[in-house]
Structure formats: C-alpha cells, structure tokens
Specification:
- Strand 9 (about 140-150) and strand 10 (about 155-160) form a beta hairpin.
- By secondary structure, the protein is α/β, with parallel strands linked by helices.
- The strands form three sheets. Strands 11-10-9-12-8-1-6-7-13 form a nine-stranded mixed β-sheet, with helices on both faces. Strands 2-5 form a two-stranded antiparallel sheet. Strands 3-4 form a two-stranded antiparallel sheet.
- The radius of gyration is 21 Å and the shape is globular.
- Helix 3 (about 95-110) packs across helix 4 (about 130-140).
- It has helices spanning about 35-50, 70-80, 95-110, 130-140, 190-195, 220, 245-260; strands at about 1-5, 10, 20, 25, 30-35, 60-65, 85, 115-120, 140-150, 155-160, 165-170, 175-180, 200-205.
C-alpha cells in the first residue's frame, strides 16, 4: 500500500503576510515553512504505517511549487516520509485552486496511491477545498475534517468533525482524506532524521512529465481572477467595562453580548 501526503510551502507564521500588488499574488519572498496543518497529515500517515493494521510500503510527500518548496519536502521526509515528489514548472504560476487540484491529481495519477492525505487547509490560502478538487479528478471518495482514523476490515473507519457533532464513516480505499488538526500531535523530527532527509529520493517533475496540458493550469487555465485587493478594516478599540458596581457591570456585559447575538 502506498500513502501520498500532499504538502505545501507557506509563509512562516511569524512573518506578516503581504500581497504583491503587481501580480496580485501572495508575496512569498520572506521566510517560508512547511504548512503546519500538513504535519498532522504526515503524522497520520506514519501512524497508519507504524500501526501495523495496514501493510503500508511507503509514504510519499508530494508538493507543487517553486524551487524553494523542496525545503518543505525535506521537512516532510524528516518527519517520516520515505521519498518526495516535487512538481515545478513556470506553466503552473498563477494557478487557482481548480488548476492546482488538476495539476496535483496528475502527479498522483503517476503514483497510484491507495490513500491521499492532506491537512485541512493551507496557512496562506485557507480555501479548505483542494482535497475535494483532487478527489474529483482522481474519481476517489473524499472525506474532510477527519479527526480519527482506525483500520477496520481493510477499510478506514473515520470520524469527521461537523458543526453538529461528529460523523462516523466507513471509507473504502482508495480515497482522499483531509485531516483536522485535532487528529494527532505531530512528532518532532530527530537530528538524525533531519540530517538524513537530504539523502532520501526526491523526484522533480515538470508539467509535461505528468501529462499536464499547459492550457489547463496557470493563469490561462484558472477559472478565477483576482480583480482587486483591499486591506482589512482597522481593528477597533475594545470596550473596557470596569468592575466597580456588580449589578451595573453585569447589565453592561449582558447588553454587550445580546447586541452581538452571542446569548
């Protein structure tokens, strides 16, 4: 069995996100890191492999991005992936979610995975939908916000978090699963794993290598266009309610909550 984990290089959480007004894209020139939500997907893959209930032969980290994205792959390998695949091509620049999903699906087709795992969202785009787009292209079932996975009769018994509680779903493989950050606590890579990550196989592929039609990706192949960008409204000063008179203070707090429909 093969598990592929989709990972992404994103701006480091400590870096203030900036937009390049020329390209209307996120400015990625600062410090970047492995998307923290993807570390939960890698950990989920490692737990399936180490659990022994499924015969997992290898875990493959897959990403799409510029040359710098290889650092995210190295971190994914340091966390346990056996090898990595890097899709990188100028034709992919400016791809929206649909075009990115198509491109990643083409890479996955060449790997023929039994399970595709990914984090619930990326820390930059936060669209939450890439897993469903990939699954649609691969013609696989898709499950999102999974916070627990168990192996049961060759299938995966998953719990997914919903607004009303939890769904329990028995999922036949192959499948695409995005995991929530409550599913596990990602491990820290050992110094030996970090040092050994550069020696593990890294396969770099171009769009042509995996049969991607250039007209279906990049700005030309994207179905959405960023027309304008506006900065978020400035944060308003908070209201301080002094605890000098108990009854009056309670009334103010209740009125404040009621005005915002919080009670």
């Amino acid at each position: 069995m093969k598990i592929c984990v989709l990972v992404k290089e994103v701006p480091d959480a400590a870096v203030q996100k900036r937009i390049d007004t020329g390209s209307m894209r996120l400015d990625r020139s600062g410090e970047n890191n492995l998307n923290p939500f993807d570390t939960h997907a890698i950990e989920a893959a490692m737990q399936l492999k180490e659990g022994g209930d499924l015969q997992v032969d290898e875990v493959v980290a897959v990403t799409m991005g510029p040359g710098s994205a290889q650092r995210a792959l190295q971190k994914a390998v340091a966390l346990g992936a056996d090898r990595s695949v890097h899709l990188s091509d100028d034709a992919l620049l400016g791809s929206d979610v649909c075009a990115t999903g198509l491109a990643l699906a083409k890479v996955l087709e060449s790997e023929s995975p039994d399970v595709v795992l990914l984090g619930q969202q990326s820390d930059d785009g936060e669209c939450y939908t890439i897993g469903a787009v990939v699954a649609d292209h691969l013609k696989m079932p898709s499950l999102t916000q999974v916070v627990k996975m168990d192996v049961e009769d060759g299938k995966l018994r998953c719990e997914r978090q919903a607004e009303y509680g939890y769904d329990t779903v028995s999922l036949a493989l192959p499948a695409v699963i995005s995991v929530g950050d409550a599913i596990n606590e990602p491990r820290y890579p050992s110094l030996k794993a970090i040092m050994g990550a550069k020696k593990k196989p890294l396969d770099t592929k171009s769009a042509g290598d995996v049969g991607i039609d250039p007209g279906q990706v990049g700005e030309a192949g994207s179905q959405t266009t960023v027309i304008s960008l506006n900065p978020p409204p400035p944060k308003q000063a908070g209201e301080i309610i002094e605890d000098e008179d108990t009854n009056e203070t309670v009334e103010k707090i209740v009125a404040w909550l009621d005005e915002r429909k919080l009670i």
